[in-house]
């Protein structure tokens, strides 16, 4: 692989915040990639480089300056080698010098360019590099947005309808269920991730609504992302007008799992409350998937600890938490080797880039979180999965 030139620019994400889009010009083909941005970010994530005014001018200057000088007109045998060069050039543990956003934009574009140059679809290039078996992930459709994504109208950040099966069959079901829920909720605002943002006064109410929906749509179940780091203050978790000690919150989850058709619970506790994760996984991990997000931040070292301590039994994979595609693939490989599931995820501030759909399909992830159906940038990820299935059918 050879890169002739690199250009980057600022584009707006779904929240109207600037983010970076990078174009790699190879010897004959070019690839473009843009990176998303989180809001409920874990403190152990790689650093997203922002200027004091919130812009990405420094990240762009790093891509077009130092990174371009290091990568252009050199021969690379693979996208991993490009990632290695980026990691070495940055030289920090959390990519804080050049910025994980700057680095990831180049890393994704390099993987895309490798696929184009090999004449294979992106998901196929990803699975070939990772040694994974491609498969359609379950859709995790974020139907009700809460927490920091909707000014805490709902206590937990994400109320998700999980839909089983091939995406071409699952997406119409997701649409019908999403519309039905919308009719029942009436005129409510949209949250950051294109799901409804209603207000309820009792913890059970959103679960009761989703329970009714699941009963009407076979092949569906409920997941939540509690994003509990955002609920945690002074040793307690604050939900609606009550506060809960960790063992009291664990009881809330046990109760929910007993009463409702739950598929998974993400970040049930704060990012450093590892022993609370371990206790919950030991008690309900047979019935429900316990997913680490802020806990593990797609970081192979933190995933290794989670595996040793049996903190969870599934890992959320967000490439921008770690900053290169190769490291995100390493996180997937470790998770799968432990016999655990991966759920690949977008961020709450998204772009039109559908990389995460190819990534999820290529690694054969258990699920893909790509938001609600009320925002085009979310829908495009789900539609990309349908397109992959269509391409395969035509072969
Ligand atoms: C999440 O917490 O899983 C999420 C997608 O939100 P954010 O991008 O704000 O971290
Ligand atoms: Mg999360």
Overall description:
The chain is an alpha/beta fold and 395 residues long. The protein is 42% helix and 19% strand. The strands form three sheets. An eight-stranded mixed beta barrel has the order 4-5-6-10-11-12-13-14, surrounded by seven helices. A three-stranded antiparallel β-sheet has the order 1-2-3, covered by helices on one side. It has a three-stranded antiparallel β-sheet with strand order 7-8-9. A hairpin with a 2-residue loop joins β8 and β9 (242-244). The two termini are 28 Å apart. The mean pLDDT is 97. Magnesium ion (MG) binds next to loops. Residues 225, 227, 266-267, 293 line the site of magnesium ion (MG).
List the topology elements.
Elements: E1 3-12, E2 18-26, E3 30-34, H1 57-71, H2 79-90, H3 100-118, H4 122-130, E4 138-145, E5 158-163, H5 167-185, H6 205-216, E6 220-225, E7 232-233, E8 236-239, E9 242-244, H7 246-259, E10 262-266, H8 274-284, E11 289-292, H9 300-308, E12 314-317, H10 319-322, H11 325-337, E13 341-345, H12 355-363, E14 367-371, H13 376-394
Parallel strand pairs: 4-14, 6-10, 10-11, 11-12, 12-13, 13-14
Antiparallel strand pairs: 1-2, 2-3, 4-5, 5-6, 7-8, 8-9
The structure holds phosphoenolpyruvate and magnesium ion.
Magnesium ion (MG) binds at residues 225, 227, 266-267, 293.
Q: Summary?
A:
The chain contains 13 helices and 14 strands.
Give me the Rg, rounded: 20 Å
Query: Looking at CATH, which topology of the largest domain would you report?
Result: TIM Barrel
**Proportion of residues in helical segments:** 40-55%
In the sheet with the most strands, the strands line up as: 4-5-6-10-11-12-13-14
- Looking at CATH, the homologous superfamily of the largest domain is Enolase-like C-terminal domain
Overall pLDDT metric? 97
- General shape: globular
| Beta-strand percentage range | 15-25%
Helix count from the secondary structure assignment: 13
CATH class of the largest domain: Alpha Beta
Bound molecules: phosphoenolpyruvate, magnesium ion
Main sheet overview: 8 strands, mixed, barrel
Report the strand count. 14
The unreliable regions are none
The CATH architecture term of the largest domain is Alpha-Beta Barrel
Taken together, the total number of domains comes to: 2
């Amino acid at each position: 692989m050879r890169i002739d030139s690199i250009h980057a620019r600022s584009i707006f994400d779904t929240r109207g915040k600037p983010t970076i889009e990078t174009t790699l010009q190879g010897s004959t083909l070019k690839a473009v990639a843009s990176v998303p941005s989180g809001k409920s970010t874990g403190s152990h994530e790689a650093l997203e480089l922002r200027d004091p005014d919130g812009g990405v001018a420094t990240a762009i200057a790093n891509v077009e300056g130092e990174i371009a000088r290091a990568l252009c007109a050199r021969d690379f045998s693979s996208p991993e080698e490009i990632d290695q060069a980026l990691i070495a050039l940055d030289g920090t543990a959390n990519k804080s010098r050049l910025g994980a956003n700057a680095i990831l934009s180049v890393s994704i574009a390099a993987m895309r360019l490798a696929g184009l140059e090999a004449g294979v679809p992106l998901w196929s290039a990803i699975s070939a590099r990772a040694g994974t078996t491609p498969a359609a992930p379950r859709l995790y459709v974020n139907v009700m947005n809460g927490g920091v994504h909707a000014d805490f109208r709902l206590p937990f950040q994400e109320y998700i309808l999980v839909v089983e099966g091939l995406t071409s069959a699952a997406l119409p079901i997701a649409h019908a269920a999403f519309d039905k829920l919308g009719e029942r909720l009436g005129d409510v605002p949209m949250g950051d991730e294109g799901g409804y943002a209603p207000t309820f006064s009792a913890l059970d109410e959103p679960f009761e609504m989703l329970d009714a929906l699941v009963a009407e749509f076979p092949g569906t179940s409920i997941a939540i992302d509690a994003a509990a780091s955002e609920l945690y203050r002074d040793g307690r978790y604050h939900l609606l007008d009550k506060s809960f000690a960790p063992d009291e919150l664990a009881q809330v989850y046990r109760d929910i799992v007993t009463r409702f058709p739950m598929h998974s619970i993400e970040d049930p506790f704060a990012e450093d409350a590892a022993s609370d994760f371990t206790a919950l996984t030991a008690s309900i991990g047979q019935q429900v998937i316990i997913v680490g997000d802020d806990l593990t931040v797609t970081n192979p070292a933190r995933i290794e600890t989670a595996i040793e301590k049996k903190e969870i039994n599934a890992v959320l994979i967000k490439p921008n938490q770690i900053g290169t595609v190769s490291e995100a693939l390493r996180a997937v490989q470790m998770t799968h080797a432990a016999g655990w599931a991966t759920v690949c995820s977008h961020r709450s501030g998204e772009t039109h880039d559908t990389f995460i759909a190819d990534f999820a399909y290529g690694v054969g992830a258990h699920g893909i979180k790509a938001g609600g159906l009320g925002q085009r940038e979310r829908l495009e990820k789900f539609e990309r999965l349908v397109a992959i299935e269509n391409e395969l059918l035509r072969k």
